[in-house]
Amino acid sequence: MHTGSADPADGPREGRLQLRDGRTLAYAEWGDPEGRPVLGCHGSPSSRLERHVEDPGAYRRWGVRLVVPDRPGFGRSDPHPGRRVADWPGDVAQLLDTLGIDRTAVLSLSGGAAYALACAHALPDRVGAVGVLGGAPPPDVPWPWPGWLPPTVRAAVHRPSPATAALLRPVFAPLTISPQLLPRYLQLRLNPADRRVIGRPGVRRALAATFTEGLRQGAGALAEDRALLFRPWGFAVGEVTQHVHVWHGTQDWQVPVGLGRVLAAMLPHCTPHWFAGEGHFLVFDHAREVYRALVG
């Protein structure tokens, strides 16, 4: 079953797909319906409403069709108990079939990197170029933990146990109280470049909308998503054969640039782009060059 909506041309055009196992997958499309497709793998927390431009009309002008599905438990997609990172390409393949998309580029922001690379690995005939914005490597690499994370949680996240999500849930629960204020919170705690970007009303509105929608079902999906990133992803990043572009700000305080450098080194076909002095949300200043690298 597939249902769509008649939204303005620039989006979001909303849709829902019933997957073969009965779950609902929600998605949104931005830009030109006949444009060159780009599958968006949203951050964590985020949703199908995630976009990388202040003016969604830019996608139409660039001839881009951005398709962003909600991962399980985010937005309006049903949870998928016991899921793994490597399960996501199966959902994506069904969505591409439904939308009549034979081949697509993939672009991820932050916590979506693992899912974008999983799609590239599992669907080599359908995924072309891959873009990673502010992404981190798999858990083979020790992560620098923020000081506010309790030691018990730090010790648990690397253990391949479903209990990890239960430990993380109370950590993220406060975010669900006023998710629309998350951009303001980030603006206060991130580096000056990110504060400048998030200070723009258009960026703040876009982030508030996608964060709020992403947390619609509570903190459970966010806790599960973060826990999965610290467990084996189910595939070897070094086996990704597509060309991967990595964009990372040297002053990214969310995902330190050292992690981006490690990820780039692990990918056999990678073009890294390091932006001196910029932060986690640099894409809002560089979206045109990012999309040009992926679809021309």
Description:
The chain has 296 residues and is of the alpha/beta class. It has a domain at 2-144 and 232-295: Rossmann fold. 36% of the residues lie in helices and 18% in strands. The chain has 11 helices and 9 strands. It has helices spanning 57-62, 88-99, 113-122, 151-157, 163-172, 182-189, 192-198, 201-214, 220-229, 257-266, 283-295, and strands at 2-4, 13-18, 24-31, 36-41, 64-69, 104-109, 127-133, 244-249, 270-275. A hairpin with an 8-residue loop joins β1 and β2. α5 packs across α9 and α6 (182-189) packs antiparallel against α7. It is globular, with a radius of gyration of 18 Å. The model is unreliable at 1-7 and 167-174 (pLDDT under 50).
Keywords:
single chain; 296 residues; alpha/beta; Rossmann fold; 9-stranded mixed sheet; 11 helices; 9 strands; 36% helix; 18% strand; disordered N terminus
SSE inventory with pairings:
Layout: E1 2-4, E2 13-18, E3 24-31, E4 36-41, H1 57-62, E5 64-69, H2 88-99, E6 104-109, H3 113-122, E7 127-133, H4 151-157, H5 163-172, H6 182-189, H7 192-198, H8 201-214, H9 220-229, E8 244-249, H10 257-266, E9 270-275, H11 283-295
Helix pairs in contact: 5-9, 6-7
